[in-house]
Amino acid sequence: MSRSDGVEVRASGAEPVVLVGLVVAGAGRSEVDEHLDELERLVDTAGGRVVERLVQERAAPDPATLVGSGFVTRVAERAAGHEARSVIFDEDLTASQIRNLEREMPKDVKVLDRAAVILDIFAARARSREAKTQVELAQLSYLLPRLTRRWGHLSRQAGGIGTRGVGETQLEIDRRLVSRRIAQLKAKLAVIERDRRLRRGRRNELPSVALVGYTNAGKSSLFRRLSRADVLVEDRLFATLDPRTRRVSLGEEVTAVLTDTVGFIRKLPHDLVAPFRSTLEEAVESDLVLHVVDAAHPAWEEHLRIGDEVLEGLGVAVESQLVVLNKCDLLAGPMPVVAGDRPALAVSAVTGAGMPGLRSAIRDRLLTGPGVAILRVPLDEAEMVRRALGMPHQLARRYGREAVELAMRVDAWRLDEVGLGGYRVTTWGGVAEGGA
After folding, report:
1. pTM greater than 0.70
2. Domain 2-167: which topology?
């Protein structure tokens, strides 16, 4: 896969790839097969074509080759037989393991791990200045401990999986230059993140909603359905890298800012966790997080668990989350209404099923969140209407025949101070808590 002027072009002949998995004591073969299924999708996204999958069972990983010398010989034979250009392992490989494996492979066959494939996809799909900077930082962080012979084969290879981005231009650099470049990129990211915080601050007048979830859960489709924005929707992993933000109407004259974020995945490379943490900070700063799950996927509960772990690590409270079970049009049975021990909303971003209920749920959660007050001020009380309309941090406003309703971020004592405390109501369109 290559890019020219931001346009994705897939090579006519996909690169043949052999996948290798490892089953250790205590792990199930079915789990490894599922992980290889996901790795195969990653390879497809990167422009490869899996020609064979090999799985080794061992009591423990081999420190020298991960899978053992005898099995390495078999892998090399199969790679030669298929004329494969890459052998990709589903586990992280150390620099010494890569060197040992490359010695046994046919000439010009690359040895990569899952992390290298993910980094390659990110390098191909990064568009914004922030994403490109993050990707280069992640690639260099990955490359630094593998500078010995790890990239030597690239001088003999004309592209392919694992060679995009930094791999094409940094073949001869040493550790000192890489470390210097990493420091420069971190400083550059600090400036980019500061600018992003300023932009986010300017949006704070509106409530914010973030879409998060496992990659390929349909977040971009849901983003498109809610915002009516013309965005990329593709049945491939990591279709979205850059956070995208749009204003969305939630009905009843309530507007919010919706952000689509990068997807979660198993075994995310450690080098990518820190650089892309800033992308997921949109979720931390949001008033509401929609945790989108592919309900039609056999492992949807595990995907939900992985997402929960990431969000917990980011400090996102469960109370600020709403689980959305997407792709329910693909389910043969009844739509689920719970996810674990939490209530969930079942929708289909493709058909639009469940979307009115989702908009209503988002609206209700935003307008009943902590620190949000809803006022209903009769129109014949002109002075009180003037005071209410002059209050800052308004989230929503609508006029009725007899009253104006406003939702705003404000402390209760502040409302009492300006004489508006008695106009609070319990819900949007609800009944007043007390008289003026």
Report:
1. yes
2. Rossmann fold (3.40.50)
